[in-house]
């Protein structure tokens, strides 16, 4: 343990061959974009204090990233502006570098003569590649800290888990050890270098992303906004969380965009929910999603390099989908019809419009939405690529292990089991609009999110 940081949260990913450098400890912030409750930053601050050197926090802003648009970059940049201010008040340097990530990190380390690099954990391929490329080019210790999961991903399990039921006991048995409160951030021993304030306008101008996916204003980006959303959830929605499968009930936490950008720690959310006086059943249901399902998604992406492809599906699912590959489809759409919510299905169109207009689709509708893409495209491969593209482009919380796993669950039976065989789906679990109508008022949902010229029959698929 370093102070109160469990050593199992930290992995050495590059051991230096030469003599130690005297420069600052650098925390390359990537997935966990916050100052509070951040194990990677806490470890970096401790290391700086131990060595008697300054601490610098670095963020490298890639001009584009997967299918992120200005909606996502705007959210990220506003959150980072808050990070800069909070760090400045604590005498910790924050640098924003623009351009390709790997050379930006390497240049920064060389320019500052950095003595140590610490970064946060992310199971996605692109992030792993960045870390590998940086580590190959520098000769200083490089550490990775899992600041996102409560039980560090590599501690929970050394293999891809089959389902929630297999990972649940592995997580639960380690919670006493890892679900602890956070220590205070150590004061940096050396004064902050006099870095100029970040030019946030220049950062926006450097982007090469889709500017047509508009930013949304119903949630405030950043750590303060995240905490306000958590408080609102605890005070007004958590008590009713058992109605989480009703998209009209408005009981979800709306924390996924903040969790995705690391603007709030899941561990902090879990601690606050456990300490609240709300119904035990509601708290338990929420913690199952926040901890078990979320950490199961990281486990899937960490252990399965094909997390966003049909190749990543379990064998039974690949086999059954293959068997039904040539089944006739009553409806077949291309990307444009899906993207413009122009299918024959009123409920599907409403879900798509919810995502496009608000940046977030209700969790229950996401399952239905992805399953219909499987039914209404020519192949599971096409369904995967359309679902991922739309989710990553419009959902604030997209480009996340939860998204890739949720889509792979819906289309490819990941973490699920075989069901009754039927056309197109084979043994993949089926959903339809009639089933949704048995659970909630689909008409009300359609009305909320449908523009008047589109059809209103909720029973159309
Ligand atoms: C097809 C499909 C696509 C999805 N895409 C995404 C995505 O891009 N990003 C994303 O964060 N989640 C995704 N999910 C999972 C889930 O739907 C969302 O996390 C949830 O709806 C986010 O809203 P919330 O924070 O208000 O949820 P709440 O119900 O309040 O849940 C709180 C937190 O628990 C976690 N959680 C809840 N449900 C799940 C789940 N099924 N799997 C994993 N973690 C969960 C999330 O971190 C969430 O923020 C997807 C699910 C499916 C089926």
UniProtKB/TrEMBL annotation:
GO terms for biological process: photoreactive repair; UV protection. Signal peptide: none annotated. Keywords: DNA damage, DNA repair, DNA-binding, FAD, Flavoprotein, Lyase. Coiled coil: none annotated. Its cofactor is (6R)-5,10-methylene-5,6,7,8-tetrahydrofolate; FAD. The keyword DNA-binding applies. PROSITE patterns: DNA_PHOTOLYASES_2_1, PHR_CRY_ALPHA_BETA. Its EC number is 4.1.99.3. Gene3D superfamilies: 1.25.40.80, DNA Cyclobutane Dipyrimidine Photolyase, subunit A, domain 3, HUPs. InterPro entries: Crypto/Photolyase_FAD-like_sf (IPR036134), Crypto/Photolyase_N_sf (IPR036155), DNA_photolyase_2 (IPR008148), DNA_photolyase_2_CS (IPR032673), DNA_photolyase_N (IPR006050), Photolyase_Class-2 (IPR052219), Rossmann-like_a/b/a_fold (IPR014729). One of its GO terms (molecular function) is DNA binding. Residues 23-153 form the Photolyase/cryptochrome alpha/beta domain. It catalyses: cyclobutadipyrimidine (in DNA) = 2 pyrimidine residues (in DNA). The keyword DNA-binding applies. It comes from the Bacteria. NCBIfam families: phr2. Belongs to the DNA photolyase class-2 family. This is Deoxyribodipyrimidine photo-lyase.
């Amino acid at each position: 343990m370093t102070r109160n940081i469990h050593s199992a949260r930290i992995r050495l990913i590059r051991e230096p061959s030469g003599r130690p450098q005297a420069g600052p400890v650098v925390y390359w912030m990537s997935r966990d974009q916050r100052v509070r409750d951040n194990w990677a930053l806490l470890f970096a601050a401790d290391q700086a204090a131990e060595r008697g050197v300054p601490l610098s926090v670095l963020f490298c802003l890639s001009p584009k990233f997967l299918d992120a648009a200005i909606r996502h970059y705007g959210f990220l940049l506003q959150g980072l502006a808050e990070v800069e201010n909070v760090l400045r008040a604590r005498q910790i340097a924050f640098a924003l570098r623009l351009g390709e990530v790997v050379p930006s990190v390497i240049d920064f380390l060389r320019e500052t003569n950095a003595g140590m690099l610490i970064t946060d954990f992310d199971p996605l391929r692109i992030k792993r590649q960045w870390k590998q490329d940086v580590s190959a080019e520098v000769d200083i210790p490089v550490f990775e800290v899992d600041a996102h999961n409560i039980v560090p991903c590599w501690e929970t399990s050394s293999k891809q888990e089959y389902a929630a039921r297999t990972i649940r006991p592995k997580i639960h048995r380690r919670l006493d050890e890892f679900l602890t409160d956070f220590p205070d951030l150590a004061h940096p021993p050396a004064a902050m270098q006099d870095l100029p304030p970040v030019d946030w306008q220049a950062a926006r101008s450097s982007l090469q992303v889709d500017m047509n996916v508009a930013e949304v204003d119903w949630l405030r980006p950043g750590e303060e906004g995240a905490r306000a959303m958590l408080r609102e959830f605890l005070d007004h929605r958590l008590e009713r969380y058992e109605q989480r499968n009703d998209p009209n009930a408005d009981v979800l936490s709306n924390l996924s965009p903040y969790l995705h950008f690391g603007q709030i720690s899941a561990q902090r959310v879990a601690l606050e929910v456990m300490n609240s006086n709300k119904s035990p059943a509601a708290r338990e249901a929420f913690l199952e999603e926040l901890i078990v399902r979320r950490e199961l998604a990281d486990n899937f992406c960490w252990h399965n390099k094909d997390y966003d492809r049909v190749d990543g599906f379990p064998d039974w699912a690949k086999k059954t989908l293959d068997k039904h590959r040539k089944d006739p489809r009553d409806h077949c759409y291309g990307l444009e019809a899906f993207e413009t919510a122009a299918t024959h299905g009123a409920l599907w169109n409403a879900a798509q419009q919810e995502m496009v207009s608000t940046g977030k689709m209700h969790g229950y509708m996401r399952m239905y939405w992805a399953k219909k893409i499987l039914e209404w495209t020519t192949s599971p491969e096409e369904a995967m690529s359309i679902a991922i593209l739309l989710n990553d482009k419009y959902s604030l919380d997209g480009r996340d292990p939860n998204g890739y796993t949720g889509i792979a669950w819906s289309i490819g039976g990941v973490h699920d089991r075989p069901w009754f065989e039927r056309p197109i789906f084979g043994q993949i679990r089926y959903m339809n609009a009639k089933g949704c109508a048995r659970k909630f008022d689909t008409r009300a949902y359609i009305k909320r999110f449908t523009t008047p010229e589109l059809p209103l029959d909720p029973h159309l698929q």
